[in-house]
Amino acid sequence: MYNGIGLLTARGSGTSGYVTNNKFNLRGNAFQRRDEQREERGPDQRQPNAGILEHNKKRAVELEVEVMRAQLEDDGTPEDEVEEKLNAYRSQLLAKLKEEASAVALQHKDEQLKQETHQIAARKVEQMGRLRGAFGIGETKEGDAFDRELQDRRRQEKIAERENREQERRKAAKRAEKEKRRAEREREREAKSTAKAAKKAAKQTIKDAKKAAEEAEAARLVR
């Protein structure tokens, strides 16, 4: 036992009494656990570095400038004129590069704006559809309000639909009234049958009682 850790005595424990490592620990080391977590999480997607991309573009510009320098030197152009032309060419390439970046950014912005516009339009269509459903308005087109034939036809359709609903309501009311009368007749028939059965049972009871009384009287006279 050391520093409060271990056994007071090694007798009967089958050990030396000292604290040792657990040989049956299967957790593995920290590196193995980190690799397992990485495999479960999947590969990390690295984001592009804007600085490196910009550096590569400028490097390509300088490469084109050096190619032009070699051509001018081969042509025997004076050094001052070479530097002037190279500076102008470099400025032209950088301006073109900047315009391309602006065009890409503008295109991306336009795509986002179009997407947002389409989303707004889709939400508007959905909202109008819910309103039409709430007010019972069918699909309409621009200019339908000024089409008299269409309006007359829709008016006639609404009148016919209203008449059909009224006829269905009347038929349903008649069926309900007929069913009510049939149920009442059935109840009356059942009540009559019950009353008749009760009357018959009462008569039979009276008859049985009278017969029992007669038999009792006859037995008394015999004695």
Write a structural description.
With 223 residues, this protein is mainly alpha-helical. Among the domains are: 50-134; 154-188. Helices cover 76% and strands 0% of the residues. It contains 4 helices and no strands. The chain has helices at 30-41, 50-75, 79-135, 148-222. The protein is flat and about 165 Å long. 0% of the residues are buried. The model has no long low-confidence stretch (mean pLDDT 78).
Task: Give the arrangement of secondary structure elements.
Blueprint (H helix, E strand, L loop, with lengths): L29 H12 L8 H26 L3 H57 L12 H75 L1
Keywords: mRNA processing, mRNA splicing, Nucleus, Spliceosome
Pfam family, one: cwf21
Subcellular location: Nucleus
Task: Note the main attributes of this structure.
223 residues; mainly alpha; 0% strand
Shape: flat
How many β-strand stretches? 0
Average pLDDT across residues? 78
* Percent of residues in β-strands: under 5%
Distance between the amino and carboxyl termini:
117 Å
* Number of H- or I-type helical stretches: 4
SSE series? HHHH
Unreliable runs: none
Rg value: 52 Å
Helical fraction: over 70%
Major beta-sheet overview = none
Structural class by sheet pairing and helices: mainly alpha
